Amino acid sequence: MANEMVRIAEVIVDVPANNTDRPFDYRIPPELQDDVQVGSRVLVPFGHRKVIGYCIGIKTASSSMRLKSIIDVMDMAPPLTPELVQLGQVMAEEYLCHTITALQSMVPAVLKGTYQKMVKLHPESREPLFSLLSDPEQQLYSLLEKRGECTWEEVNKIPGMSRSLLKKLIEEERILVEERIGDRVTKQKVTWVWAADADQLRSGLQTLSPRAVRQREILQYFLDHPGEVELSKLLTHIRTTRSTVKRLVEQGWLCWEEREQYRDPYGDRTFGKTEPLPLTKEQQRAFQAIVRPIHEKRAHTILLHGVTGSGKTEIYLQAIEEVLRQKREAIVLVPEISLTPQMVQRFKGRFGKQVAVLHSRLSNGERYDEWRKIRQGEVQIAIGARSAIFAPFQNLGLIIIDEEHETSYKQEENPKYHARDIAKWRAQAHGATLVLGSATPAVESYFKARTGEYEWIQLTERVHGRPFPEVQVVDMREELRKGNRSMFSQLLARSLKECIERGEQAVLFLNRRGFATFVMCRSCGETLICPHCDITLTYHQTNQTVRCHYCGYAERLPQTCPNCQSKHIRHFGTGTQRVEAELLRQFPDIKVIRMDVDTTSRKGAHERLLAQFRDGKAHVLLGTQMIAKGLDFPKVTLVGVIAADTMLHLPDFRAAERTFQLLMQVGGRAGRHEQPGKVIIQTYSPDHYSIHLAATYQTEMFYRQELLIRKRHVYPPFCSLFTIMISHVDRIHLMKYGQQMAQFIRNKAPADCHLLGPVPPPIAKLKDRYRLQMLIKCQTDPKVLVRLKHILHQIENMFDDRELVISMDREIMNFPVGYSDLLETSQSLI
DNA sequence: AGCACGCCGACT
DNA sequence: GTCGGCGTGCTC
């Protein structure tokens, strides 16, 4: 009886625009009653076209007068859970993006629709007398004669084709192009072979003609290896062909069958089963702390602050076992760069087929396979990079974010989310435990741990008791005074030589090839910084000025150092190629592997280069910080940081934090094995706290110092940040809009909101468009945030200029109130 | 975002 | 009259 009640679906349509960013109501036709659920992907008529949408709610009445009906449901089961649907709405609100954009970011690429407009001949237009037709008409007919239809673009290419002519001749249809989920994408057809009757195999061998060598071999194989085998495996074991096996099948000795199975990227690899390792006292303590909230099923965040080599992974593994025992699920986030086969192996080894792996090297189809294993409850553990945080589990018990300070957890495209925030929301919704693991946590996380918002657990001992490598800081100003103008200090050059002579390997770091260049005095090491923001000034070659990218302060490039009056003042920005050239000039006989954006852009190049280095094919590995993570080379005994300053002086309030983190990571790299390691840090600022405290392993001191500075200049965690980027082809217009926008925000924004800028960003002109950015620092208070977000929404419609593009971004550190309330209503729908 | 509709100036 | 350009407003 209840079925007779009208059911109406609220649908978010796949049209990312401001005025379509709201639910539209559709009738659920009787035949789709059972299929349309919260989270379903549906096809709906929208205006004059058909689009994909997501059902985000179901109700029995609508305020809208005439409703259209849902055309179809796209999937067997809804791709999104009610929880993820809610999360999508929260993301849209918090990250200032369209709801559909947030929802799309949670599903694999194969589920994203692309549309193509197709045209075919109007049914009423009968075959005409060809010769009487105009030129464009003739072309159109010949185009459509071959195939029944063609794309809109093709038709428009016909010269002289007019709109009204087309209308007469053509019928339009928008079609949805689904990525082909055929044999290759979802499932793979695999032939399995087995003996028809194992006991008869011997007699079979006798019956066969002695000349049928291959056939006998195959039967012998089944005698030796009872059971089923994949045909492809059989063919590699015994050098034979499909047709020979076929002959045996036809004679009735063997059976075979084609089966569909998931294509498993790690399928042909066998993972040695690993057993839980005994935990040290310290590890045991950490393990207990993680397991406690898991048992209590309460949302809880733990910062696992452990030095490199303190055995965090083993703790993760054992905590996951605990979660599985509760029949709950776990997500493990790892930075893309350390999602190496070794890492995967560790998890697959312990948990086997209960693990789905999601990383960027998977094809769309493979990714879809892994995702479906999660959605259908075939696996309980998802390990992957940033986007794995959306793994559609329904009963999460634990989320682990390893190396939680990594910048790769922040998505740079819309929606610009941070996986750490998403993790907090999801943990809250599921009553799950969130573990943030790092040797060098983000300053914000450390702050929260020390103020009691997170539980703080430290691991101070290395598992095998290996000592930390000795760190030496070389003052490059001193080198210059000694007349050494090369980029290698005497100490580094000598150490490198000795290292290579001993037959050991070295790793050299050059920090990120910054697009922003800064100005520094080579004599005293002072850099030019903004008097208002304490941020490094950026050098602009075009007009010989230095500028602050936060507040807009500018001055002419000074000829002499304002601090020591030296003339050795110049801008910096050394690339890896230059270091390589210099290295080969000083050491002509050595082999260097260079890893940077240029050498690793090709697919698989990254892994290949690392494997080469591991195999001892080169003496030196030279690269940007992409080589700093999760690498463990037995023969590396020397690690050199060419210029610690390049990162330190980036125009970013997190520059010191990044520098400290990198240097600490580097320390963990050298000498993890038998030989003792040595780290050499070259710098023009040996006294800078981030460098000095990293070199002396004074973690605690660093965070205190950094927090002091953040507090003084009001940066996170002592404020919330919004950035606004606007762009326009016309520079004058852009500047005018920027000024007006800034004025508007300054007038309307609540007190304690400070707008910095507008100011040209590091890349001031991109793709023929000028750009300006603004930064808003504001109090982290829900009321203030709501008001500010309201104002930010207003500015989107402030200017009537299609050329003006506005994009907004937010750094979130607190989860919004109300999410758990929303969730309660949604869960009653399950 | 698309797409229609409607207004306007320009053209065989 | 008809064609195409462009601004406006709507999509359950």
Q: Would you give an account of this structure?
A:
The chain has 830 residues and is of the alpha/beta class. The protein folds into 7 domains: 5-107, GIY-YIG endonuclease, CATH 3.40.1440.60; 115-181, Arc Repressor Mutant, subunit A (Orthogonal Bundle), CATH 1.10.10; 189-260, no CATH class; 281-411 and 419-435 and 445-460, P-loop containing nucleotide triphosphate hydrolases (Rossmann fold); 470-513 and 574-711, Rossmann fold, CATH 3.40.50.300; 517-572, no CATH class; 720-810, Alpha-Beta Plaits, CATH 3.30.70. The protein has 27 helices and 35 strands. The protein has a 7-stranded parallel beta sheet, sandwiched between helices. Strands 5-2-1-4-3-6 form a 6-stranded mixed beta sheet. Strands 20-30-29-21-28-27 form a 6-stranded parallel beta sheet, with helices on both faces. Helix 13 links the parallel strand 15 and strand 16. The longest helix has 18 residues, at 731-748. It is globular, with a radius of gyration of 31 Å. The structure holds a DNA duplex (12 and 12 nucleotides). Its cofactor is Zn(2+). Component of the replication restart primosome. Residues 293-459 form the Helicase ATP-binding domain.
